[in-house]
Each structure stands twice: as structure tokens, then as C-alpha cells.
Automatic annotation (TrEMBL):
GO terms for cellular component: mitochondrion. This is MaoC-like domain-containing protein. The lineage of its organism: Eukaryota, Viridiplantae, Streptophyta, Embryophyta, Tracheophyta. SUPFAM superfamilies: Thioesterase/thiol ester dehydrase-isomerase. It comes from the Eukaryota. It comes from Tetracentron sinense (Spur-leaf).
Length: 164
């Protein structure tokens, strides 16, 4: 249920391809999703992950630590990256992720996440893809960046998925 609700909260922020031919992922391609994390998302993630750090759950504690309010778990924000990959390439295997947390994300912030294909190589009828990963708050402030690696079953993107 949580997964279905999380998936339904994603809104594409790029244009749709009208071609019926499959679009193949190429170096330089950017795939995006946007999301606003709610207080309920934070509570559910905390419950699921057992991360009960008061910075995420207690406004007064977070303010006393120098934040504006409770912060969204960084790993919850980073979960946008494998979702983008899996939604475009069902059956993809997420292999690694480096993360650099730049700024806090708060309940209600609109987060635009994007991955950009940096390197693609074929290996045993599958593809190893290296992506840069970034999240922006309110369209302009970089809050998270890094790199990800995934094994893709194909370079053909799922029909109806978005790209930039």
C-alpha cells in the first residue's frame, strides 16, 4: 500500500514522446520526477526504516538544532532515483549510489529529482548505466547530488514514460 501511494504521488516534469517506436536511452539523456513529501510520508518512512531521529519527528528539537522545522529523511529523498530508473526500465537492478546532502528538505518542499545518463556499456546482453543524480528544492536549490549505477535489461524506455 505504501509503495502504491508513493508511486501515485509522482508527477512527471518532462515532455512525453508521441512516437510509437521505443526510445533508447542515450548518454546525456535526463529523466525527471517531482515530489512533495508530506508529514505522513515522513512518519511512514520513520516507522518502516526504524529511523526515529527527532530531527525528523520533533519540530522543537529540529529548531533547537538549527533547522527551520523537521527535516525529511535524506534517504527518503534519495529514494526518488531508483524509482525513476525502475519506472523507465522495469527489471533494472540498482547497484550503487553515492550521495552528497547539500541542504535540508522540509515537509511541503517541492523536490525535482533527475538522473542523467553519463555512461552506458553492454555486458552479457544487459547494460551497465552510470547516472548523475540530483534533487532540487523549489526548482533551483541543489539539495542532493551523487552518482548511481544500475544494470538495465534493455536501453528501450517503457512506452509513455517521460524524458528530457
Amino acid at each position: 500500500m505504501l509503495l502504491n501511494r508513493l508511486l501515485s504521488n509522482f508527477v512527471s516534469s518532462s515532455r512525453f514522446s508521441s512516437s510509437s517506436a521505443p526510445r533508447l536511452l542515450q548518454i546525456g539523456d535526463v529523466l525527471k520526477r517531482s515530489r512533495i513529501f508530506s508529514h505522513l510520508d515522513i512518519l511512514e518512512y520513520s516507522k518502516l526504516s526504524h529511523d526515529s531521529n527527532p530531527l525528523h519527528l520533533d519540530s522543537e528539537f529540529a529548531r533547537n538544532a538549527g533547522f527551520e522545522d523537521r527535516i525529511v529523511h535524506g534517504m527518503l529523498v534519495a529514494s526518488l532515483f531508483p524509482l525513476i530508473i525502475a519506472s523507465h526500465f522495469p527489471g533494472a537492478v540498482y547497484v550503487s549510489q553515492s550521495l552528497h546532502f547539500k541542504l535540508p528538505v522540509y515537509n511541503g518542499d517541492e523536490i525535482a529529482s533527475e538522473i542523467q545518463a553519463l555512461n552506458l556499456r553492454e555486458n552479457k546482453k544487459r547494460f551497465i548505466a552510470k547516472f548523475s543524480t540530483r534533487c532540487y528544492k523549489n526548482g533551483e536549490l541543489l539539495v542532493l547530488d551523487g552518482e548511481a549505477m544500475a544494470i538495465l535489461p534493455t536501453l528501450a524506455m517503457e512506452q509513455g514514460k517521460s524524458m528530457e
